[in-house]
Amino acid sequence: xxxxxxxxxxxxxxxxxxxxxxxxxxxxxxxxxxxxxxxxxxxxxxxxxxxxxxxxxxxxxxxxxxxxxxxxxxxxxxxxxxxxxxxxxxxxxxxxxxxxxxxxxxxxxxxxxxxxxxxxxxxxxxxxxxxxxxxxxxxxxxxxxxxxxxxxxxxxxxxxxxxxxxxxxxxxxxxxxxxxxxxxxxxxxxxxxxxxxxxxxxxxxxxxxxxxxxxxxxxxxxxxxxxxxxxxxxxxxxxxxxxxxxxxxxxxxxxxxxxxxxxxxxxxxxxxxxxxxxxxxxxxxx
Length: 286
Description:
The chain is of the alpha/beta class. It has helices at 17-28, 43-55, 68-76, 83-88, 98-102, 117-127, 144-147, 150-155, 168-181, 183-186, 239-246, 255-270, 276-284, and strands spanning 3-9, 32-38, 60-63, 80-81, 93-96, 111-114, 136-140, 160-165, 190-194, 200-207, 224-231, 250-252. It has a six-stranded mixed β-sheet, with helices on both faces. Strands 9-8-7-10-11-12 form a six-stranded parallel β-sheet, with helices on both faces. The two termini are 28 Å apart.
């Protein structure tokens, strides 16, 4: 029987998730329907959409901007949250808590939230053969994209992490907040600085801001160097990657992270492990 999935967002017409999950279904031999779901930008509309979807037999949903925080709040009050979702303060994957369902809890109160973004990033970097273990990593940005990847990066056994942000206090506050939410983060010393003051040599530098979408550039120091540079954005020429490519770094945009986080969602829903490299190759040929 066909299993039904959606991705919820506003806007949503641009989402590549249906094509990605269709490729996963082909690879795993699964019978699924995966569609885009537009939702008005307010919490009550989002709640109505997910309740109607799951009550109608839906199996799983992805959540994209601007609803990841709303999804977090919804799951915190209902079926619960994974550790990654709790630390990130955001949810990108929804499913049903089977334990609650089996105990007679109404479906609307058994919606469970996870966040696969950070592990999707780590998995993609690993697939690129960029060494994470022992790496000195710089992460630029202190917003939602950054907070979702900090715990998975630390668990990948990097040697150090520096978080840079235009407003230093935001980076400092983020480290304090996440340290309270996670013993793993609390036990690591994470450096913070203003973006313009980020300097020296790093193994990997990651841009978790959306500045590349506007064509603007980050205020990067002249002596900032990295062997590898990663931008979470994708789908266009990114000034951040151009900057480090000119300095001899290997670079990658975030398309592989998009596929990686989607694969983890698919695996959680269906139990099928996805060959992400194979799926990426197939999607790139389209």
